[in-house]
Amino acid sequence: MTWEDAAKRFRSHQSSTHGLSPVTGPSISPAPVNRRLSFAQESRDVDMDTSPTQQHAQPALSEPRIRTPLPSGPRPDNKHVSLPPFPGFDSFRADLQGSADRILASPFRSRYANVSVLLVRWQDDDDPGVQSAINELAKTLHEIYHYTVHIKSIPSSTEGSRSPWLWLSQVVTDFVAEHNQRDCLRIFYYSGYSYLDADRQSVLASSKHADPATAIRWSGIQQLFENSRSDALLLMDCAYYPTHSATRRFGMLELIAASAGEDHVELLGRSAFTRALTEQLRTRAAQPFREPFSVAELHSKLTSLYPGMVQERNPGKQAIASFPTPLSMQLSGTKTLPSILLAPLRHDAPSASTNGLQISMTFRLTDDPFNMDSWAEWLRTMPGGIAEVRVEGPYRDTFR
Question: Residue 6 burial by CB count (10 A; 0-12/13-18/19+): exposed, middle or buried?
Fold first, then answer.
C-alpha cells in the first residue's frame, strides 16, 4: 500500500481508539527525510490488512520496479545423463557396433559375415550334365557372391567300413560346427535321387535302383542343421518328402527342393533346377539396384519359370496336364525372423558419408539388456537407406 493509504488507515484506527473523529484527529503526514525509518517505527501500531490481495498489491506505474534478471548462462542439458559403467556393457557395445558396421559395409546389405557352401553329389554319378551344372553353381557362388564353396562326393559303397550315411553325417557335422554363429549362413546343396523307403522315410540314393544298404536316411542329416545356431539354406535337386517333424531353436532354416515329392525329371530333365537356380542368382547380382535376394523370392521366381521350362523341353506335347512345382519350407526359432537373404559379400568397407539426415531413437531397457544375439538379429533386419549406426550409452531414463 502507499503511504497515504497507511496514514488514512492509521488515522481511522486512532480515532476509534481515542474517541476522536477523523476530522478533528491529529494530522499525520510523512516525514520528508528517512521515510522508510519513520514508517517502520509507526507501523507497530497500525492494524495492517494481511489479506492475499493486499500482500501482493502491484506498485504504482510511477514507482520504479525492481526486476530480477534471468540467468544468462546456458541451460543445463538433461537429455543424456551418463550413468556409472555397467559391467559387461563396453564389450556389448563394441560387439554391437562391429556388427552394425559390418552389415552396412556391403552395398547389398548382407546380414551375414560369413557364408559357407557345401555341394555334394554321388561319387558314381557320371552324368556330364550334372557335373557341369554343379560347377557353374559353385563358380557363381564363389566368384560373384564371394562365398566359401566346397564340393564333395558321397561314396557309393560301404568300402573301408564307412557307409555313405556315416560319411555324410561326419562331413555335415564338421560343416555345421565351423563358425556356428548367428551372423553366419550355411548353404547345403544335394544332387541325386530320393524316394520313400519301407518305413515311409525319405532317403537319398545314387539311383532309383541303388542298393538299399547305401541309401542315406535324410531326417538324421537335416536334424544337424535344425540344431545349429547359424541360419541354414538347403537346396535339394531332387524330390523332397517332408515326413518327419522338424523343430528349430535358433535362427532360420529354409529349404527349396526341385519338386514336392513327385517325379520332375521326366518333364524337366536332370539338373534343370540347378541351372535355373544359377541363372536367377547371376541375374540378381548383376542388377544395378543392388537388392539382396530373399529365399522366398527365389522360390517364387523358380515357380514362375517351371511351366516355360517344361514347354521348352517338351515342344511336341500339345497339352500338359500337370507341372512339377518346386517346394519351399521355412522353419524358424523366432516368429519375427524374415526369410534368408542371399547377397554378395564385400570385405572392404566404404567410407561413411558425412551428408544426409540424422535421427535418434532412445530405448528404455529391461533388467537384461545385453542379449547380443537379439540385438544383432534386430540390426540385421534394419531397413534400407541407413548409412551409419552409432551405439552409445547407457544413459539415465529420460522418458516422461
Answer: middle
Cα 109 to the center of its chain, rounded Å: 12
Q: Three-state DSSP class for 311?
A: helix
Name the fold adopted by 110-342.
Rossmann fold (3.40.50)
Is the four-CA dihedral 264, 265, 269, 274 of positive or negative sign? positive
Written as nine digits, the cell of 14 is 486512532
pLDDT score at 354: 54
DSSP SS3 for 92 = helix
Tell me the backbone φ, ψ of residue 165, rounded to 5 degrees. -65, -45
Does residue 314 contact residue 267 with C-beta atoms inside 8 Å?
Answer: yes
Beta 252-259 vs 327-332: how paired, if at all?
antiparallel
pLDDT tens digit sequence for 310-332: 888 877 776 666 778 899 999 88
Return d(Cα 115, Cα 183) in angstroms, integer.
9
Sequence ranges of the domains in the chain: 1-25, 88-106+358-400, 110-342
**3-state SS, residue 188:** strand
Question: Is residue 232 a contact partner of residue 184, using CB atoms and an 8 Å limit?
Answer: no
Which residues have a Cβ under 8 Å from the Cβ of 38 and sit 6 or more positions away?
30, 31
Per-residue model confidence as pLDDT tens digits over 106-125: 655 567 888 999 999 999 99
Count of CA atoms in the C-beta half-sphere (13 A) of 152? 16
298 confidence band (pLDDT: 50, 70, 90)? very high
The one-character DSSP state at 82 is: B
